[in-house]
Amino acid sequence: MSAKAxxxxxxxxxxxxxxxxxxLVSVGAAEQGRETVMFLTKEAVRLVLPGHAVxxxxxxxxxxxxxxxxxxxxxGRFLVCPLCFNAKQLDPEALAANATLGGTVQLxxxxxxxxxxxxxx
Length: 121
Description:
Blueprint: E1 4-9, H1 16-31, E2 35-40, H2 64-73, E3 77-80, H3 82-87, E4 99-101, H4 104-111, E5 117-120
Parallel strand pairs: 1-2, 1-5, 2-3, 3-4
Helix pairs in contact: 1-2
């Protein structure tokens, strides 16, 4: 079994249910002790800025702030596409503590030579 999980998310709060599902998968992996990274692209890059990962996607769904906190507490990391982030003229100083700017090269370096479980949303 692979000890790593890579979850790719392209959607921001324009589709809160998709964000919630991706966060649930990521939290589950991290809380099971898997080394877990969420690769954020397109509108998803905003989710690692203060005040953006907010709300509840549906009745009975966990709220996004609690999922983000659980992900960080379990050691989960965000890898944020710098092309997408910079194109939106966002502030890199405002990134969450467990987020770094990095693209596909950094994602492949993180995966390394061992297999990784991947999900894409």
